[in-house]
Amino acid sequence: MKQVAVHPVDEKLPLPRLVPLALQHVLVMYAGAVAVPLIIGRALNLRPEEVAFLISADLFACGIATLVQCFGLPGVGIRLPVMMGVTFASVGPMLSMAAAPEVGILGIYGSVIAAGIFGVLVAPFISRLLPLFPPVVTGTIILVIGISLMRVGINWAGGGLPMLPRTVDGQPGYVLNANYAQLTGLGIALFVLVIIMSLIKWGRGFLSNVAVLLGIVAGSVLAAALGVMHFEKVAAAPWFDVVLPFHFGMPQFHLVPIVTMCIVMVVVMIESLGMFLALGDITEKRIEQDDLTRGLRADGVGTIIGGIFNTFPYTSFSQNVGLVGVTGVRSRWVTVVGGIIMLLLGLLPKMAALVEAVPQVVLGGAGLVMFGMVAATGARILTNVNFKTNHYNLFVVAVSVGFGMIPLVAPNFFRNLPHGLHPLLESGILLAAIVSVLLNAFFNGIGSAEEARHEASASAAAAEHV
């Protein structure tokens, strides 16, 4: 019998290759995965052991959500190499809820569960937006995603944020981070970057595929030798703990927090559209409307799981999109194993503490490579766009990128607009998506998804003949 060719996305790699590749994905996303429970836990004035539980719960739910997205359930999961994590878009609204005594942590969980149900219901409608995303739009959005992520990678290399949140006399504020951009940390980040680049150039096969992981390991060894990496939390953490649903009590449901979180969910799902289209291009797998529906529905299911297991809204992590581009490994089974590792880390606090001990400066060296790859993917998509005879496309890209940079270069630009609009306006990715879709519809009209793909192929062929 003739064997049917297996797409690289569905290729099952040997376990000795899968585990280090999966661990690489976990290390890349870990800092972002634990940041939100840390921020919200402190805002709620939880005890240190409760904050530690929030982190374990987050890792556990993160693993389940990743398995739902990559392995898939009937009608749920895009089955691409995606890692799921708590979205930062939800931080602002949840901080406001945490500050309201009548809402608190139980009100947050109620709004998260309600937003997840809302996400599952509206996923088919959001996925119908595919005809609005021809190559000029998707390329622009993915370019902005990469540029926006570079801020994360650069701050990692600097050792965190230049200004740290701090409450003074009951009022939220910021204080200068004295450890930011120290020469030792910058040297470690550069060391990691050099190791990764060297392995990519001179490594062969599997060694090149795990270049990011080996760079992080080498950077961690150097950080430990220089006294930058500490293991006190590892020694103090227990070996095993169980994550039970509704640890803090039954969720409470309040109308305003629910509506706010549903708005955040729409923002997250539109950003996810860009992530899925980027992954489809990187993995060379055609993404149809049904695929987008399943992927967006998994965002909603993951968010419901988050609310049940004492954590927050989930989305597809853009950090890991860049890693797929760097390694060239397209198998979704890598992130399936990554999901299993995250789930186990949630049950093994000591192992989670060991991964958490990796300094941000180490991750910074890797972040510069991976996030730059996302931007490069967007640029590569734009090379297939017809700019020569259709000069309107130039304006679509130019103005959209400009809007996408507003939250990045001027965070207070929209501060005088209604507070309810801030979740929509503080995401450069969402701004770029909205503006590029509107400008493309204005200049070029709206065709079918098939016409958009045909346009990309035709423009690429024309460019080759020229």
Automatic annotation (TrEMBL):
Question: What InterPro entries does the entry give?
Answer: NCS2, UacT-like, Xan_ur_permease
The record's keywords, sorted A to Z, are: Cell membrane, Membrane, Transmembrane, Transmembrane helix, Transport
A Pfam family annotated for this chain is Xan_ur_permease
One GO cellular component this record assigns the protein to is: plasma membrane
Question: What GO molecular functions are on record for this protein?
Answer: xanthine transmembrane transporter activity
The UniProt entry, under PANTHER family, shows: PURINE PERMEASE C1399.01C-RELATED, URIC ACID TRANSPORTER UACT
Q: What is this protein called?
A: Purine permease
Organism name: Roseomonas acroporae
